[in-house]
Amino acid sequence: MAIDRLLQARDIAVIGGGTWCEAIIGAARQLGFAGRITPVHPTKTELAGVACVARVADLPTPPDAAFVGVNRAATVEVVAELAAIGAGGATCFASGFAEAEAESEGAGSLQDALVAAAGDMTILGPNCYGFLNAVDGVGLWPDQHGLVPVERGVAILTQSSNIAINLTMQTRGLPISYVVTCGNQAQTRQTDIALSLLDDPRVTAIGLHIEGFGDLRAWETLAQAAAARGVALVALKAGRSQQARAATVSHTASLAGEDAGAQALLDRLGIARVNTLAVFLEALKIGHLFGRLPSGNIASISCSGGEAALAADAAVGHAVTFPPLTQAQTDGLRAALGPRVALANPLDYHTYIWRDGDKMAEAWGAMSAPHIALTLIILDYPRGDRCDPVDWDIATAAVIAAARATGRRYAVCATLPELLPEETATALLDAGVLPLCGLDHAIAAIDVMAQPTPITPPAPILLPGRPAGATTLSEADAKRALAEFGIVTPRGGRQIARDALASDIAGRTAPMAVKVLGLAHKTGQGGLALNIRTPEQAEEALTTLADGPLWVEEMVPGGLVELLLGVTRDPAHGYMLTIGAGGTLTELLSDTATLLIPATRQDVATSLETLRIYPLLTGYRGSAPVAIEALLDAVDALQRYVVAHADDLEEVEINPLILTADRAIAVDALIRKAVP
């Protein structure tokens, strides 16, 4: 499929009538389209002042791109006609295909017919607005838009046409090269479009508004291609799925959350994730000018102590830091600002040098340093319709001068988005200075763009199987299955009859744990009795234990920390590995980290450091550290089990995994899988 022929079309056909098709012609002209536009309509002689032909077969040449603005049934026929004459591609505007399958009988089969009709011809949609190409001056867009021609800029891909329209109207100075709506991706996927755009050197970064991922292998390919080209990918992930929580019985499934799989996938692929459209735009600006940032170390300089405090407070909760000034920074700032300014990062430089462009450039140059990823100059511009901005013009020129003199990354950041005029933002960007609109948005964007990306491509994600009729294994069977792959379990475990419990305990020398098999969560359900040492204690325990077969095993002595290890099958993202606080702290803390399988030993070790209970693992307030290597061995063993049973596995949970100074022991285990 030649997506580039569609997106860079010089010959356009507009098929259909009405205001939507008329708008196509207006949108293309707004971008300066210099090619041929031919409307197709069976009865009209002209559309928006352009002469029509009656049929697709009457087009003077096979068009590079066609807007198909007819009803859904006719769309299939028109697409077949376009494919037959060798058209480059089509945007299918009509809705009522697979996206309406639950409400409209036959919609799914109609979509299949559409794909079959297209054959090798590229189609966008259906239920799709089309695209805008501001670098070549091409558009198939049935509405107003806010783009202007640019020489280079970011590409934005979204399934939502309305969000696409809104993003074209931004006034933050972001140069946008392409906007492409993907519709329900009957044939051409979001990843297909993004991969094609990566081949265009005029595309500086790619923004992805994602409702669902689909083919995980395609996303892996896209992430690797973008990394090889040095093009940042920024994602706004919507449509949080509940698939991973369906039909689950473990703590793991509930703690993993609806969105954990999506976050783990994006982290694994090195795709920066944002949560709002405002941060999406600011992150794309960073990607456009600088790509991904090498760290979250920033410097901030303003002429207000209040703004310095706002900058410091905005970074709370983000992986953004303000390193203390080095001696070189201190010396340079002291020379520029004199003895009366207290030097710090963030810095309030007062107003001693305001209106002195040379001194401002000198001070701002001194504030930057090799270990600083981005130096923020906080400037709030006055309203041009009511105030005189001449003093701020001096400040703007000083920032540009500092950036050119040092060759380092600079940003002008307004505390409120509306306090950085669009024309100023554009001028700054053209001069190599990053315009950031809104301090909170800026810090959030810096955070995501400074997150580390994989140095080498990770191993392919373990794709989820499709188990049917999953059954919960008994604890005994689950432990035996995991032990075969290297998971350490308590000694002396065996299943016994209830009337044999007392005699069994009498033959043991160590304290025992007695469990009722068949209960997913034993605590609080009469499923567990601990520290049973004598036949009398065994008889007493029977009066409180729930009905069911019993499992007896040795108590694990000397446990320092209890963890949860779990895996759930997420149909949308793969197998999710969850690590977190276990035992009685599981629900209380909800302290977890999630990765996708296979996860490297280093990835697991790094994820442990994000847990609030991590200090307990390393020895808190003089306590002994746990056996981290044994824990990592247990995770490796669990992953081996999952890989070996991926075709029929639903979920696995070990809770608690008791960690001691030298061991990691699975005290309880749950497995759900399809059993032949």
Description of the structure:
The chain has 676 residues and is of the alpha/beta class. The protein contains 23 helices and 30 strands. A seven-stranded mixed sheet has the order 9-8-11-10-12-13-14, sandwiched between helices. Strands 20, 25, 26, 27, 28, 29 and 30 form a seven-stranded antiparallel sheet that branches. Strand 17, helix 14 and strand 18 form a beta-alpha-beta unit. About 1% of the residues have low confidence.
List the helices and strands and how they pair.
Layout: H1 3-7, E1 11-15, H2 18-30, E2 36-40, E3 46-47, E4 50-51, E5 65-68, H3 72-85, E6 89-92, H4 107-118, E7 122-124, E8 131-133, E9 138-140, E10 153-158, H5 161-168, E11 176-181, H6 190-198, E12 203-210, H7 216-229, E13 232-237, H8 251-256, H9 260-269, E14 272-274, H10 277-289, E15 298-302, H11 305-314, H12 327-337, E16 347-348, H13 357-367, E17 374-378, H14 390-406, E18 410-414, H15 422-430, E19 434-437, H16 439-449, E20 470-472, H17 475-483, E21 494-496, H18 501-506, E22 512-516, E23 528-532, H19 535-542, E24 550-554, E25 561-570, E26 574-581, H20 585-589, E27 592-596, H21 601-608, H22 614-618, H23 628-644, E28 649-659, E29 664-666, E30 669-674
Parallel strand pairs: 1-2, 1-5, 5-6, 6-7, 10-11, 10-12, 12-13, 13-14, 15-16, 15-17, 17-18, 18-19
Antiparallel strand pairs: 3-4, 8-9, 8-11, 20-30, 21-24, 22-23, 22-24, 25-26, 25-28, 26-27, 28-29, 28-30
